[in-house]
Write a structure and sequence with these properties.
Blueprint lengths: L2 H4 L8 E7 L4 E8 L1 H8 L5 H18 L8 E7 L5 E9 L2 E8 L1 H5 L7 H5 L3 E8 L4 E8 L5 H13 L3 E10 L2 E11 L17 H11 L3 H5 L5 H9 L6 E7 L1 E2 L5 H8 L4 H7 L6 E5 L4 E5 L3
Parallel strand pairs: 5-11
Antiparallel strand pairs: 1-2, 1-10, 2-9, 3-4, 3-6, 4-5, 6-7, 8-9, 12-13
């Protein structure tokens, strides 16, 4: 590990660390969410299975979103079904701002018991991952079925199918009376040795990738959520035999709900007068409900 990384004090929660292993042509991200996760979950009375799922989804959004280079670029991850117990799960990440929300059928969820499978929650659902690039104003989206046992597996499939990048993702969640902690590790193999180049020779059995997959896969969920174990120590445990591992401090994660009365006024101003009139209640106000933070805004356009 570099001396700069060691002296940076890379401990605590709600912090992304980026790392590269040059001789293995690999890059990665590691993150642990705490207070930000609690703040998002506290906005809704989510039952335990939904809290766990949302915690995993927010870690994934932080890992994937931190791959973006441009300051105002955004990652949106959305899981949706037609007939599942959960009909919408959405998280997004922009410049360190993270938010998430789950819409579900409480009565049907209660019938599934305390530990429902991913298929029980979503049925035949799909996961859409969208990158909105601020610098070029381009949008890239990939859609994969929600197959397998975890959201992480679906994200791995996205990168392999849509980006041709072998990817390993490991997650951990711990929820108790003290709150919710979730952590994650992402490792990717860039066989051309350079980001942004077309990857013509993706090899899942490439010796560089096979080595990184085995090393990264050895991390335990407990290590990812242990508050007494800083993230740089986790990386050292995994890769201390490598000749060089470059670690840098990434974005500090904050709760990212962007709702405000001024924002909703600007949105409503785009509608015609007749449409706005239909939206008003008997007091002349337009009520706007923010699903992310569970607040209702009373907008008076006059």
């Amino acid at each position: 590990m570099s001396d700069d990384a060691a002296s940076a004090g890379m401990t605590g929660f709600d912090q992304v660390l980026t790392f590269t292993v040059p001789e293995r042509n690999a890059r990665g991200r590691i993150v642990r969410l705490g207070p930000v996760l609690d703040a998002v979950i506290a906005a809704h009375a989510y039952p335990a299975p939904i809290r766990h799922l949302l915690a995993e989804a927010m870690v994934l959004a932080a890992l994937l979103g931190s791959l973006l280079k441009d300051e105002q670029s955004q990652l949106t991850m959305q899981a949706q079904t037609q007939d599942g117990v959960i009909d919408l799960l959405v998280c997004d990440y922009r410049s360190g701002e993270l938010r998430g929300y789950v819409r579900f059928d409480r009565a049907r969820l209660d019938e599934l018991g305390p530990s429902p499978t991913l298929h029980a929650l979503f049925g035949d659902g799909y996961l859409a991952i969208t990158f909105d690039l601020a610098a070029t104003e381009q949008r890239y989206q990939g859609v994969v079925p929600l197959e397998g046992e975890t959201l992480a597996a679906a994200c791995e499939s996205y990168f392999l199918q849509s980006e041709q990048i072998p990817t390993l993702i490991r997650l951990g969640v711990r929820s108790d009376a003290g709150g919710c902690v979730a952590g994650g590790l992402l490792i990717q193999h860039l066989p051309e040795g350079e980001e942004g180049r077309e990857r013509l020779h993706v090899q899942l059995d490439h010796p560089e990738w096979e080595h990184m997959r085995i090393m990264g896969g050895s991390v335990s969920p407990t290590e990812l959520v242990d508050p007494d174990l800083d993230l740089e120590t986790v990386l050292w445990r995994l890769f201390h035999e490598e000749r060089e591992v470059r670690v840098e401090r990434g974005k500090q994660i904050v709760k990212g709900c962007r709702c405000s009365s001024d924002y909703y006024r600007s949105v409503l101003a785009r509608f015609g007068a007749a449409e706005r009139a239909e939206m008003r209640n008997e007091d002349g106000l337009i009520l706007v409900d923010c699903a992310f933070c569970s607040k209702v805004f009373e907008i008076d356009l006059d």
